[in-house]
Amino acid sequence: MSGKIMLIGFGGLAKAALQIMVTKPEIKKIVVASRDTQNSKAFCNLIDAGALAQGLNPEIEFTPLDLNNSEQAAEIISRENPDLIFSTATMMSPWFTGKLPLEINMTLYPAGFGVWLPMHLPLTMKLMQALQLADYQGFTLTAPFPDIVNCMLSKINLAPTSGIGNVDLYIPKIRRLSADALGISTNEIHVQMVAHHALMPYFMGLANDNAPPFHLSVMVGNEDVTEKTNARKLLSTNLPVIVGPETNYVTAGSSIRLIQAFLSEEEVHMHAPAPNGLPGGYPVTVSRHGIKPSLIEGLTLEEAIQINEDSHPFDSIQFIKPDGTAVFTESAAEALQTAFNFNCKQLHPDDAESRAEELLSKVQECM
Question: What is the pLDDT of residue 241?
Fold first, then answer.
């Protein structure tokens, strides 16, 4: 592998990722691709200058790219032919909800993050269609709501290689608090977890009851210390951190580690959401040869998948049909109707763009 990465979409997460990427020697070249030419070029120049100031010698290029033009996107991807594409492109930042009126957020939040599915599906689907046009053979990692989005796309043979973040974001907290409880180094703690994005409110201490199902084991060597450390409670233990766009730093760190794993000849064991389009997140084994769920002692892959499918309703989605249609829970559909007069009981990938534009228009009316 040449170590060439293409970064598509250039919001807060991508900018945080770029700042880390330039410090990794196995990442030889970074192509930033975005519609926002002026600001993106300027930020690339800033990161280049900062890297040079550290004694590094990054190779960063910028190319204009609009995922709404599939043929143009396919042509650019074919020309660049990166080893790996990392896309953060979405029609709405997950942090945008903080700008909505309080009463709307109070209506939407209990229904789950998946009420925003129409905003996160279209650009990932367009990317995958462009990659299909380009006959792209490299790896594709996507950030927007992969636990649901990538699972939907897998039903129509457009699944990215993997999502990023989510389940892997739970692991550092569990390792840190388990190590502190035992008075040992975090290097001695090994965690295996099957969990969905739906668990995030409990992880962040924003909800305390009716948690979605998950599997968690904490090991020190051959000893299972899950009960000894009360690890399930540690998951929701309050650990003061800044909540907001600043958390992109953690998500970016997880993403870069996953990118490094895909560039590695040696297998790397970590966690990731939606490997090869599976629902939710899993322990995974990653290398330049691909990604696959790791074996979990006492749990079959089928049982792990079921845990994550049973978690879908906690994130607004009752289930996903074989044709890729996401069926919203009754509470999610009612919340969208109440907040925006937006009637959306189910969403098929083919309807994603038109429904996203409709929802965006209704959101803008409320601002």
Answer: 59
